[in-house]
Amino acid sequence: MASDFTTRFSLVQYSKIHKMVTSGTVDSTVRRRSVDKRRSILDAAAPVFGDVGYERASIETIAAAAGVSKPTIYSYFGGKEDLFRESVADSARSLNADSLAAVHSLDVRSKNWRASLVRTAFALTACQRSECASALSRLVNAEIRRDPSVFAAVREAGYESIVEALAGRLAILSNTGMLSIEDPVLAAKQLMALTQVELPDLTSLGTKPASDAAVRKAVAAGVDTFVRAYRP
């Protein structure tokens, strides 16, 4: 009797497990847990690296903050060097999310495209003016001589994605005859340079906040110079 019950129970359990496997439930659950664990490690690593720097940061401290074991971190990232590189790149992606959203919202088909260009350029300064951006910049500058690839990782995750998105919007302005642009990527870099050139002076090299009014005035002047240069 007990044997029959055990057999029936085992068959029911096997049927449930088989259904989960064949339907992909097990795989999706494992993938979700893996992504969540990776996210937890990155979220824990950023403040540790930011507070004490690369050399003084330890895998033990990061593992404890993330609620995982040291072998788990090595399994996901290989070691402290790769974790640090991915951590700063992840921070750059997070910081630039709003900037990318601003670029994508740039209205290049309306009659007020210049005003929209000013709003977008102003929004792009917000990332550089934030305390998080300043902290990331200090961390990267402190470690770049030890590992130059850190700068490349941050640039690829942040700056290059913004340039690419902005170049696409400027290309539309060129295609509609509003501007005459042969190289949209170069034009995007020039627009960012012209609208952000006053930031070091306005913020005393990032040591004090700048008023929105002062930044907006500087941005508008940069946009005017850009538009004059690329007018048909």
TrEMBL record:
PROSITE patterns: HTH_TETR_1 (PS01081), HTH_TETR_2 (PS50977). Keywords: DNA-binding, Transcription, Transcription regulation. InterPro entries: DNA-bd_HTH_TetR-type_CS (IPR023772), Homeodomain-like_sf (IPR009057), HTH-type_TetR-like_transc_reg (IPR050109), HTH_TetR (IPR001647), TetR_C_Proteobacteria (IPR039536). The keyword Transcription applies. SUPFAM superfamilies: Homeodomain-like. Transmembrane segments: none annotated. One of its GO terms (biological process) is negative regulation of DNA-templated transcription. GO terms for molecular function: DNA-binding transcription factor activity; transcription cis-regulatory region binding. Gene3D superfamilies: Tetracycline Repressor, domain 2. Residues 58-77 bind DNA. Residues 35-95 form the HTH tetR-type domain. This is DNA-binding transcriptional regulator, AcrR family. It comes from Rhodococcus koreensis.
